[in-house]
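Incident review: delayed structure delivery

Summary: a single-chain prediction request sat in the queue longer than the usual turnaround. Root cause was a stuck worker, restarted by the on-call engineer. No data loss occurred. The affected request and its eventual output are reproduced below so the record is complete for anyone auditing the incident later.

Affected input:
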Amino acid sequence: MKHARVVITGVGLAAPNGNSLPEFRQNLLNGVAGIERIEIRYMGPQLAGVCHFDPLKYQKKKEIRVGTRAGSISIYCAREALADSKVNFEAMAKDRVGIYIGCTEHGNVETENEIFNISKFNYDTKFWSHYHNPRTVANNPAGETSLNLGITGPAYTIGAACAAGNMGLVHATQMLRLGEVDFAICGGVSESIHTFGIFAGFKSQNALATHAEPGKASRPFDLARNGIVIAEGGCLYTLERLEDAQARGARIYAEIAGYHVNSDASDYVLPNPVRQAECVRAALHRAGLAPQDIHIVNTHATATPLGDIQECEAIRAVFGAGCPETNINNTKSFIGHAMGAAGALELAGNLPSFDDLVVHPTINVDHLDPLCALPGLVLNQPRPAARVDTILNNSFGMLGINSTLIVRRFVP
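Output delivered after worker restart:
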């Protein structure tokens, strides 16, 4: 099965500016951001991308109390993706379903909360929650989802920093082609805004965005950009081998065309544009495509001064000036950086372009940084496209993990 065609048949998401793909997409086209100020322990008001989905749609109050925010996001997105796929889930063999969820960080929230709670009792650990261990294990988001859905196949998370959302889809594709599962729920989730540690960490690096207007705080490529807006969120997909999807008459969003993952091996934090360019080229090679065949490039750019420039160098090295039909955009300008969910959410925001032939923009670019100027960059307003047959999605992360995923319009 190693050459089996794998397709996307369902999408479920929770984003700071939408709780379904149609709502998310409409807000991307209308320039509606989802950033607000929230109170962060020890730090006061901070800018963040906050999701407003209803966890009680698929969970009981006790399950929410016992579980985690990442688990609730995963369950919501998984259930929404299954509903969107219109698969007869009840009739499926649950041991042939796999759950592969990318996650940047997990356990920080619960550990911070427990330490804060016992600090009120002179740090007496008898007040420590006996749910702490299952809440903090790395496989928690996938595990909570398997419990909620009764899935007995493989269910685990993939730690790949901010490349994790892409990695969820890559891994699911591989498992389907290996015949390990017949149906996959995959993507990425993040509960980052609920830990003060990540805010404090980025602030210590001078990489935390500030702005008087929350909706304008995340501004990749803008000359005045000053850092990351941390966001929570999730996006999970249902993936199937093409023959299985066709046998049940499924709607197909896109086909997985190619992917690649590599490592910088050069710095803890600073990206390496040479390695990023190599990742993109290798994904194109696997897909059998040339740079000029790509119609949308969704950038990873997080609005850090150096990070954006480094990625633009990588894109320029691959796409140059000879790709007149290649449009380049960014989704973090709307929702902030959703960490492990970023790649999965950003892919979802572009998928409808296969149908409406419109490319959503990067917003909040008042003065384009000359070092970020790229041919095809779509700024502030949506752009009609003559063709959208391929989408390339970049997601990069700390410790030098790079991932590129390419999807194509499905053609039987």
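Verification: The chain has a mean pLDDT of 97.
Action items: add queue-age alerting; document worker restart procedure.
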